[in-house]
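Exam prep: given the inputs below (a chain plus flavin-adenine dinucleotide), describe the expected output before reading on.
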Amino acid sequence: MTTVTRSSDLACDVLVIGSGAGGLSTAITAKKQGLDVIVVEKEEYFGGTTAFSGGVLWIPGNRHAKEAGVQDTREAAVRYMRGETGAMYDEAAVDAFLDNGPRMIDFFERETSVAFLPTLYPDYHPDAPGGVDVGRSVVAKPFDARALGRDIVRLRPPLKTITFIGMMFNSSSADLKHFFNATKSFESAWYVAKRLASHLRNSLYTSAACRSRAATPSPRVSPNRRSISAFRFIPAQAQRNSLR
Ligand SMILES: Cc1cc2nc3c(=O)[nH]c(=O)nc-3n(C[C@H](O)[C@H](O)[C@H](O)COP(=O)(O)OP(=O)(O)OC[C@H]3O[C@@H](n4cnc5c(N)ncnc54)[C@H](O)[C@@H]3O)c2cc1C
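Solution:
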């Protein structure tokens, strides 16, 4: 990721406004299609609301559910969405969502470092027609944020209200289960120790990155539009080189 310094530099095939899940998914997909992409973000941080959300994706028919042997069908998902949306039901939109949601999971797992985990979350109304107790919700697998290099300081920090000593819990339910059992089970105590150690390591890394970035302030698109920063996607290898 690079920062563009002048608005005259902004030539691209695809201009994405906003760096939340919607914007970055679009940007990554376009980039994987060989297009030159620029993501423009008005905030100091990238990540949008997505960066401090619970991160649970509701994707009926995802491969993780199939691999776990969850009994579910497309017809059941359609029935559920028909009931939940009532008069707002849009058949074309539901079909597109059910066709492409699982493909999106496969795409990101195949083409990027993103991986997903199944969760134990039920549908909001599991007893409604077509609802299920488990299987349709997945969450992003924890990612070692140090791979972002110095850009880690530009990732939107989590909400204080949903963190513990600055650490955000993973919605896969594994975190909560182990933190509650830490004094009762060796496996949970070991899990918690590893989570805390990794959080400490990341915090130290982020502090060091902050100090390094403070020494070289990030440039803006234009002195007249100081609230806009733009990120150009560049190949991963070039990113790694630029961080050395
Ligand atoms: C605490 C919390 C927990 C949540 N948990 C879940 C969950 O578990 N599952 C779920 O599905 N949803 C959840 N949500 C909702 C979910 O986070 C949002 O629906 C989702 O992140 C929206 O993604 P987005 O890409 O559309 O927008 P955002 O992630 O908000 O990204 C939009 C970006 O666009 C930028 N932007 C806006 N206007 C401009 C402009 N003019 N120029 C440049 N940049 C601009 C913004 O600054 C922002 O960075 C949660 C929300 C919250 C607050």
